[in-house]
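Sequence of Esterase (Sphingomonas lenta).
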Amino acid sequence: MSMMSRTRSVPRPPRRAATLLAAFAIAAAGLSAPACAQDDRMTPIATPAQPGAIALNTGPLPGVIAQESWHRQYGSVFARNVTVATLTPFPPDRARATGAAVIVAPGGGFRTLSMENEGWNVARALAAKGVAAFVLKYRLNQTPADMAGFEESMRRMFSGAPRASRTSSGDPAAGLAAQVADARAAFALVRARAPQWNIDPDRIGMLGFSAGAMLTVATALSASDARPAFIGNIYGPLAPTAVRSDAPPLFVALAADDPLFGDGGFGLVESWRRARRPVEFHLYEQGGHGFGMYPKTTTSTGWFDAFVRWIGMHGHLGPAQP
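Predicted 3D structure, token representation.
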């Protein structure tokens, strides 16, 4: 069964992308909820204020039927049916600014976006370290407008969707044209306003979670005009792929007990190594999928500090290197 809502306005992705989307959406629906969260009920909420959000120039999705809506689950906030991409800046205090920047791509199976746990909270933590952060709310595949219809579509998907392939190789951008276009527009905007935001245009990276990690890798490998200085893949798929000789340094964090990608091998890491590109890989014993910025007792919580130290090791937290 296709992951996609059966509408005429959204094209069905290639088979490999569809199976990956199925796995991501399982996580988006809360397959691995944080240990501290008990309420898995999806509760509709009013669209929250998004101060400073800037609409990107990629335009709306064509033929849209359902409009953007928001809900709360597991104590966090999610958006779905995003039709217009935006970028929300989280600037650091000027006294602490390092000149580095990160575009943050939340996950959610390309059906929802974990805007709080994998977006705003990550951006605030980066800003506290002196890194300018920008949360990318990218366009999503359409789902039923009403919450009951959305939940039913997810249940149908779970009952029929196969487990995603974690070892197949191919084009990481397959089926992600709209989302990669949004990421490219985000990089163009940040570089255009780099002087205004006190950013070094050569030190702009990208950090993605789950589906957002898939988008991050696709952007780095397929969008030559984006040119991220570094990328982070947090509990995204690790299928092997072709890696360019100028691919950016890669940071990977995954829990061994991740129900989606914990047993799929480490092909992406090996692909980076074969291309002789820098890569750092953290495999945590426990953490599940979707740990993000949730407070947990597992060592996976340390991924954020490790990521910040890693970008510092690459010279992105101090004066520009000659």
